[in-house]
Write a structure and sequence with these properties.
The structure is a single chain. 31% of the residues lie in helices and 25% in strands. The chain is globular and about 55 Å long. It has 262 residues and is an alpha+beta fold. Helix 3 runs antiparallel to helix 4. The protein folds into 3 domains: 45 residues, Uridine Diphospho-n-acetylenolpyruvylglucosamine Reductase, domain 2 (2-Layer Sandwich); 108 residues, Uridine Diphospho-n-acetylenolpyruvylglucosamine Reductase, domain 3 (2-Layer Sandwich); 95 residues, CO dehydrogenase flavoprotein, C-terminal domain (Enolase-like, domain 1). Strand 2, helix 2 and strand 3 form a beta-alpha-beta unit.
Length: 262
Amino acid sequence: MYNFDITRPTTVDEAVAALSADEAQPLSGGQTLIPTLKQRLAMPSVLVSLTAIDEMKGITEGPGTLKVGGGTTHGDVAQATKGSFAGLHTLASKIGDPAVRARGTIGGSVANNDPAACYPSACMACAATIHTNTRDIAADDFFQGMFTTALDEGEIVTAVTLKVPEKSSYQKFEQPASRFPLVGVFVAKHADGVRVGVTGASNNGVFRWAEAEEALSSNFSPDAIEGLSVSAEDLMGDLHGSPEYRAHLIKVMTKRGVADAS
């Protein structure tokens, strides 16, 4: 590590003011940022910890919606959604290990937009709204590519509101060492149609599988996507799996998700 200053504001306004300092960077659960600092891939002079901001924590149910504070941990999300929101409960309860789930937050995950992060697929499938200290952004507009979002400099994710589907399932084919998904698929059946969010597969980050959504909206059954295929173009390839392998996994995980949700 190296020398830096750290501040721990207790309100969003204080955090925004602290982030206006030169080379300041927000710190949420730190599950990505701390390893990045250790490798000198980022060297901010000031870390602004968001962990003491109570207004960014907690979960609120609304008419057909679930609003999750940006500072809410994965473990708290898993506990709050048990028995009520199957897909999100599975997603949150299988992130990393207990230590990661006790520290990592939904706001940090969404803001970082790792191409293999789990939450972005839920946001896309559940037509989420990303709330910041200045505005509300639809998930379809928020995620803009690998590690890229619509956030401006100094803008903080304060909460995420998801539309609660009639049925949902999250299926993750995980890399056993990192527990990140080689492919993760979130299937959500809403009253107005089906949405399918895919993570872990694309060089462009999270995306929706539009062809599957159309087929499943007419017939919510694994058989509905039997004749479909995913193009391997722009999918990631590494020692864990080729683009073609990931394309195959997207279809397999989607079928499993539909069967599980049904």
